[in-house]
Amino acid sequence: MRLQKFHDLIAAEFGGAHGGFIVTSHVLASLGDTPANLLDKGVDPREIWIELCKDFDVPKERWLGPDE
After folding, report:
1. Residue 5 confidence (pLDDT)
2. Does any domain span residue 62?
3. Residue 65 resides in a domain
4. pLDDT by residue (tens digit) across 8-67?
């Protein structure tokens, strides 16, 4: 997954401001850090996105983003 797609999914699911807050402050227990720090460390954005979906109980039908 490209980084832009990751940010698009965050904004679509959580909104711009709230999504940004989640990326910088929510610690993913399964990965041990915030999404922002994990991205800086080179972790695949797709892996981070999936773990966010699990933590926030995003229905699986929305894991790929909104229908275009």
Report:
1. 94
2. no
3. no
4. 999 999 998 999 999 999 999 999 999 999 999 999 999 999 999 999 999 999 998 876
23-35 as b/e, with b when 16 or more CB fall inside 10 Å? Answer: beebebeebebbb
Asked whether 3 and 36 are in contact (CB, 8 A), the reply is no
Asked if residue 29 is part of any domain, the answer here is yes
Give the pair of three-digit tokens for residue 52: 């966010």
Q: Does residue 64 form part of some domain?
A: no
Contacts of 46 (CB under 8 A, 6+ apart): 1, 6
Q: Which domain holds residue 47?
A: 3-57
Q: What is the pLDDT of residue 11?
A: 95
How many residues would you count in the chain? 68
Supply 1's token pair: 């997954």
Whole-angstrom distance, CA of residue 21 vs CA of residue 15: 10
